[in-house]
Structures are given as structure tokens and as C-alpha cells.
Design a protein that fits this description.
Blueprint (H helix, E strand, L loop, with lengths): L20 H10 L20 H16 L5 H14 L2 H26 L1
Helix pairs in contact: 2-3, 2-4
Length: about 110
């Protein structure tokens, strides 16, 4: 089984004194509500994947075999370590795939915007 990552315990912070209602009203008046996020169109084309994501897709199964029982986050950590150690030829292969996918996305966006 995989070694669990170290977890830091939160240190208890001293409680702050409560502010008077007059100060709360003055402070609240200066803050504007943030604008609501626009909803994404479900018909819009999917963005292109990065070189690391192509590498991850290709190597996820081998990482799971090397480290059985690992959590999703631990698999990502191991993939990141493998990507950092990967030779330039492997990275170039996945970067070429990413460039091809980016071109596909840009062409699809041109078509979508018309």
C-alpha cells in the first residue's frame, strides 16, 4: 500500500472580538456583490489537452500497477514525478500531440463562433 502524504494539523487561532453593528453596516456597504459567472455553453468545443495530460493518459495504468491501492491524488503525484524525470524525446512526443489538439480546438472554435 502507498505511503500516505504527511498532513499538517491546523493551529488553533485566537478568536477575534465581535464588531459593532454600525461598523458591520459601514463595511458591508462598501463591498459590492461579485458578478455571477456566465454559464458555459454545453455545445462549445472542448479545450485542447496539455502535454502532461497526454502523458498522464498514456502512463496512468502503469503507475497504478507499480503502486496498487494508491488514491487518485497519489497517482497524480507519481505522474508528476515521472513527467519531471521523463526524457526530452518523450516530452516532445506529447507536446506534439498537445499542439495538434490545440489546432483542433482552434479550428472548432472558429467554426463554432460563426
Amino acid at each position: 500500500m502507498c505511503a500516505a502524504p504527511a498532513v499538517k494539523k491546523a493551529i488553533a487561532k485566537p478568536k477575534k472580538a465581535k464588531k459593532s453593528p454600525a461598523k458591520k453596516a459601514a463595511k458591508g456597504a462598501s463591498k459590492a456583490k461579485p458578478a455571477k459567472k456566465a454559464k458555459k455553453d454545453p455545445n462549445a468545443p472542448k479545450r485542447g489537452l496539455s502535454a502532461f495530460m497526454f502523458f498522464s493518459q498514456a502512463n496512468r495504468d502503469s503507475i497504478k500497477k507499480k503502486h496498487p491501492g494508491c488514491t487518485f491524488g497519489e497517482v497524480g503525484k507519481y505522474l508528476g514525478q515521472e513527467w519531471a524525470k521523463a526524457p526530452a524525446a518523450v516530452k516532445a512526443k506529447h507536446e506534439a500531440e498537445a499542439a495538434k489538439d490545440k489546432a483542433r480546438y482552434e479550428a472548432a472554435m472558429k467554426k463554432y463562433k460563426k
